[in-house]
Amino acid sequence: MTETSLIVRKFFANHILSKAEFVTLINNRDTELDQNATCLVLKNMTYADAPHGSALTMLNPHSDQPLTVRSVLKQNAAAVSRHVFGNKIYTRGIIEFTNYCKNNCLYCGIRAGNTKADRYRLTKDEILDCCKTGYALGFRTFVLQGGEDTYYSDDMIADIVRSIKTEYPDCAVTLSIGEKEYDTYKLWREAGADRYLLRHETADNDHYKKLHPESMSPEHRKQCLSNLKKLGFQTGAGFMVGSPFQTMENIADDLLYLSELKPQMIGIGPFIHHSQTPFARKKDGSVELTLFLLSVLRSMFPKVLLPATTALGTLSPDGREQGVLCGANVIMPNLSPVIDRKKYSLYNNKICTGEEAAECRACLERRVKSIGYTLTVSRGDY
User: What's the confidence (pLDDT) of residue 118?
Assistant: First the structure.
């Protein structure tokens, strides 16, 4: 049995690998598995006896179609997702309420140094109007996302969270507004915030410093994630795939860090350049590698909340559908006012900036139905 086959077998048995083994798995993702190896791998696949694991029947070791590392992991991820979540896809309504940011991350279109950005902020009433629209459409999670905007005090955010929870007590509130101190997170948790999204971006300190200004540190980023978990937030981390200077060793470190952190949510998507950043001429990340890593993550974390990101859909017309077929179980449509959506430009050519919320949800409903899934009206907790 080849080294790659042994690593695949070990991965399905233990759901974790060493750094070197993860690098080998990633680099050999298109390697064909021999028949004997496939039989042994099948015996170790996660939830192989699951009632919803019919996808595994496609993995016939005697088929004329060659089985690669990628195809085996994809089918396993789909079977795991079906076993845990059925055919249900959770939706989260994103409200991008400010594109002001004090930071100067080199990859981000709303970085403080982008003087060409058309800045905006939503008022509390405008945010609540977005929630009203979303609730009527079946959304039961609202994600307040924005740059690190010092205009909004800690108390202002807490007041907005309380108002949403009072008006919609059956809904979850997720915040995604960057790095804060423990007491601030504690205030927002006590106000009713349920979840917090903070991508770690990269687990490698040297790589982190190549993507961010000196004022930001990877140690503080990771401390924020630790604090969020301590406070009882359903916590989300994640990284860009194909970000400038990223190596396969960096990705292996990301997978190992996530295994240690054990977040309830993991968000990954391909890096996409923005024309008004220092990385304007950098190559975009790979949809193919992102999809493979979604399958790896689903196999590592059977119950994790794993989005098929807008960035996937931006680089590939069926990117989000492919993400679902590789194990993703969350889609995050936009509830922001249409007039402001194009202004929240983290990267070039972002999709769904001109559709009304109802149009966007209806379109996604059709898309997921075409691959055998359905959008569900649910908070979708971990």
Answer: 97
Cα pseudo-dihedral 57, 318, 290, 219, rounded to 10: -130
Helix (H) or strand (E) segment spanning residue 241: strand 234-241
Encoded tokens for 382: 């971990």
| pTM of full prediction above 0.85 | yes
Q: DSSP label at 374?
A: E
pLDDT in tens, 301-335: 999 999 999 999 999 999 999 999 999 999 999 99
> Three-state SS for 372?
coil
Q: Are strands 330-331 and 172-176 parallel, antiparallel or unpaired?
A: unpaired
Long-range contact pairs involving 248-251 (C-beta distance under 8 Å, separation at least 24): 248/23, 248/26, 248/27, 249/19, 249/23, 249/204, 250/202, 250/203, 250/204, 250/207, 251/22, 251/26, 251/293
Backbone angles phi, psi at 65, to 5 degrees: -80, 130
The answer to whether 254 and 17 are in contact (CB under 8 A) is no
Q: Using CA atoms, how far apart are residues 104 and 92, in angstroms rounded to an integer?
A: 27
**Model pLDDT for residues 54-97, shown as the tens digit of each residue:** 344 445 555 566 789 999 999 999 999 999 999 999 999 999 99
Helix (H) and strand (E) counts in the chain: 15, 9
Q: What pLDDT score does 53 carry? A: 38
377 pLDDT higher than 80: yes
Say which residue the tokens 């309830």 belong to: 264
At 360, is the secondary structure helix, strand, or coil? helix
CA–CA dist 10, 15 (Å, integer): 8
- Give the pLDDT of residue 52: 39
Confidence at residue 351, expressed as pLDDT on a 0 to 100 scale: 86
pLDDT band at 209 (very low <50, low <70, confident <90, very high): very high
Please state the φ and ψ torsions of residue 121, each to the nearest 5 degrees.
Answer: -140, 145
CA dist., res. 334 & res. 349, Å (int): 15
Cα dihedral 165→338→157→172 (10° resolution): 30
CA distance 326 to 185: 33
